[in-house]
Give the backbone structure.
Amino acid sequence: MPKLSVIVPFYNVQQYAPDTLRSLRLNADRDFEFILVDDHSKDGTPAILERAAEELSDVARVRYIRHEENGGLATARNTGLDAAQGEYLTFLDGDDWLAPGYLAELVSALDELGCDFVRTDHVQATARARSVHRVPVGRRWEAFDPREAILPAHRSTSVDYAYAWAGAYHRRLLERGVLHFTDGLRTAEDRPWIWKLHREAESFAVVSLLGVFYRRGVASSLTQIGDVRQLDFIRAFDQVIEETAADREADRLLPKAVRTYCAIIAHHLSNEDRFEPAVARQLRSMSAAAIKRMPQDALGDALEAMDMDRSSKLRRLRRRVTPAGAAA
């Protein structure tokens, strides 16, 4: 069994893939497994990956998998999870990169702490600018119950830091069915995943490692494209609400889930001019339907706690008559 499996999905990132692959080489170990998943790229990415898989095999275990059709990031990560054999697992996106030696430090932290998963800080790279983004958890290098890090509802917490690549996960979570993503989600795929992780894992820790460089502002990134795929955030958060409502501590956890969902809807409404006109109309219709599906007591509390601008937008949607078929 490899000590660590690193799952790296790629899609049309020929400009950035060489940096990503170079960083893997600088982290390579015979005990590490790199799983390179091409999600049916249409540019030069597959050729880059084929060469890299051959070259990396000199320094690490490598598997290269190519999808016959594009399935999205969640599905590509699931392909990697199904192939992974490591004791620990982590992720990296195909346009991001790692600091040299970071993976060895990550494995050492998991070995030392013995918990189900660890979370790490990261560096956001926007053009030449760099900024550090930290896990919103004060306790460091100490294992504790992941449920404790979901709340409070009124503050940013660990479930709001939903980057799957910012950490590593013990194989026992994979075997218990906790690590897979919702197939087909084109955006917000990390949201149901991070909530499930915090509800169902038994222990986690935050470690002060800075080794992941997250590239922002990539023109081909879905977060930069205002098409209908962005509306998958509604399906993602509907799943968060549904699964949290079935939890044994639903009364305690639902206010946080509803408040976060409302904040995300308000964010998209405030930036709806970046969407195509038909998609913007669909955003408003689907958001109104989503608001009506939420637990109404928790929704009322969330709206009372929000600032006037955002709460007004959501209250107008709450009063809106939604047509049949407006569900996510």
